[in-house]
Amino acid sequence: MCFSAGASFAATGATAVAGAAAVNWAKKPSQMLLGAIPLFFAVHQFAEGVLWVALSNEEHAAWAQPAISTYLIVSKVVWPAWVPLSVLAVEEDPGRRRLLSALLILGAVLALAMAYGLNAYPVSANIAGPHVQYRQDSPLPFRWITDIAYAVAIVLPPLLSSIKLMRFVGLVLLASLIVSKLFFYHYFASVWCFFAALISVMLVVVVRTSQPRAATATAGVP
């Protein structure tokens, strides 16, 4: 979260509860992939909460680098592959599955590139007003290419889903990306994750509302 340690830890609790509910309601492994997304955000927001504490208190400075690493591994390595995979797993339309499979390949390649970038180029973070600002000393072409591919791998999968509510999640995610880029450019990595964490709670509804249909479909089976 991008405002304070307390806000980050509050987001940790909210997304952990939402993720636990989604996983509990999931009846198939494919639904569990979606339900786990808020749980990952709980880890994500907890890491940034720890980072706030580390950057604000010299006695906890040793916590900073592990927190930065955890936060960026989840955001830059986990999400590009996990999002298209989780949407693909619940998709039944063959044409949409082919498109989502292509996005999964893109996301997997991007995850490897991001992992390389985190290992090859120094990363740091500092508190700038009410936000955490992350910096990576990578070449500009690398940042531009990975930023564009990242947006495609994260936003396009839910927009391609045949599930109406999933497409709405994609639209809200796209709107949050635009707002974050326009108004919080220098703090994008922190602010967009704040929006995305809130949006991820909607996936609980996606998982939950799929259960009545499943129950109906099996009700007449002897």
Please describe what this structure looks like.
The chain has one domain (5-209). Helix 2 packs antiparallel against helix 3, helix 3 (64-90) packs antiparallel against helix 4 (94-120) and helix 6 (164-183) runs antiparallel to helix 7 (188-200). It is mostly helical and 222 residues long. The protein has helices spanning 5-25, 29-56, 64-90, 94-120, 140-160, 164-183, 188-200, 202-219; strands at residues 123-128, 131-136. It is globular. Strand 1 and strand 2 (131-136) form a beta hairpin. Strands 1-2 form a two-stranded antiparallel sheet.
CA-atom Rg in angstroms: 18 Å
The helix-and-strand class reads mainly alpha
Supply the number of helical segments.
Answer: 8
Sequence stretches where pLDDT stays below 50 over 5 or more residues: 212-222
Mean pLDDT: 85
Residue fraction in strands: 5-15%
Helical content, roughly? over 70%
- Order of strands, main sheet, comes to 1-2
**Quaternary state, please?**
single chain
Largest sheet: 2 strands, antiparallel
Roughly how many Å apart are the termini? 50 Å
Q: How many discrete domains?
A: 1
Number of strands: 2
Shape from CA axes? Answer: globular
Q: What is the ordering of alpha helices and beta strands? A: HHHHEEHHHH
